Amino acid sequence: MKHLLEYLPLAAFFISYYLFDVYTATAVLIGATVLQLIALQIIFKKIERQNWIVFGVVSVFGALTLYFHDDNFIKLKPSIIYGVFALVLLGYQLVGQSIPQKLMGSEIDAPSYVWRNLSFGWAATCVIAGVLNFWIAFNLSLDTWVNFKVFGLTALTFIMFICSGVYIYKYMPSDDAQ
Q1: In this structure, are 49 and 99 located in the same domain?
Q2: In a shared domain, residues 43 and 75
Q3: Is residue 67 pLDDT above 60, yes or no?
Q4: Does 78 lie in the same domain as 49?
Q5: Which whole-number Å values give the CA distances from 94 to 86, 90, 98, 116, 121, in the listed order?
Q6: What is the spatial distance between Cα 161 and Cα 164, in angstroms, rounded to a whole number?
Q7: Quick one: 9 and 56 in the same domain?
Q8: How many folded domains does the chain comprise?
Q9: Does 177 fall in a domain?
Q10: Distance between CA atoms of 98 and 114, rounded to whole angstroms?
Q11: Do residues 80 and 61 lie in contact, with contact meaning Cβ atoms separated by under 8 Å?
């Protein structure tokens, strides 16, 4: 349910873009992100930090897009979000904490180097996603960028999680241990 909520603003943006235009889609994205936060609070009684970061960037760059009627601002949004996430992952790792370990460490007993490698892998994926988004946004058509934003970045995230699962699989508890 929570993962479905994560993708609702993206789906709303995509549908609105193809039904109307990038400016309507941007306004819908802002509204859908607000609704997402409300739903997360009602259903889960908690809004994660990453959701607040996304909301902040969506609000600022969405507002700039609408105010200046310039789609370049909304095109920058994914690169900025991925850049912030990469910096957070690396920053936590520099102070000796691993975000993947914080998320999965209670269920998976893996050595610290595994968690460190996952942190660096996730950060590298964020950097790649941000750079790809920037290049596509400013070198290809708006339609191509929207499709990449919705499908390409989602696929890249999915691939990262598959690779993470394969990498950490041998440390997962077996069914016999339960």
Answers
A1: no
A2: no
A3: yes
A4: no
A5: 12, 6, 9, 10, 14
A6: 5
A7: yes
A8: 2
A9: no
A10: 10
A11: yes
pLDDT digits over 120-139, tens only?
Answer: 999 999 999 999 999 999 99
Provide the whole-model pTM: 0.86
Residue ranges making up the domain that contains 91? 71-171
Q: Tally Cβ neighbours within 10 Å of residue 165.
A: 11
| Amino acid at site 78 | P
Are 78 and 53 within one domain? no
Per the listing, tokens 């400013």 go with 138
DSSP 46: -
pLDDT at 80 > cutoff 70: yes
Final residue in a domain of this structure, among 19, 46, 69: 69
Cα(116)–Cα(163) distance, rounded to whole angstroms? 15
Lookup result for tokens 């995509």: 14
The residue type of 14 is F
How many angstroms separate the CA atoms of 49 and 121, rounded?
Answer: 20
- Decide if 120 is inside a domain: yes
Q: How far apart are CA 73 and CA 36, in angstroms?
A: 22
Task: Name the domain boundary from 69, 104, 124.
Answer: 69
Tokens of 124: 């590298």
Positive or negative CA dihedral for 49, 51, 55, 58? Answer: positive
The C-alpha atoms of residue 147 and residue 111 are separated, in whole angstroms, by 39
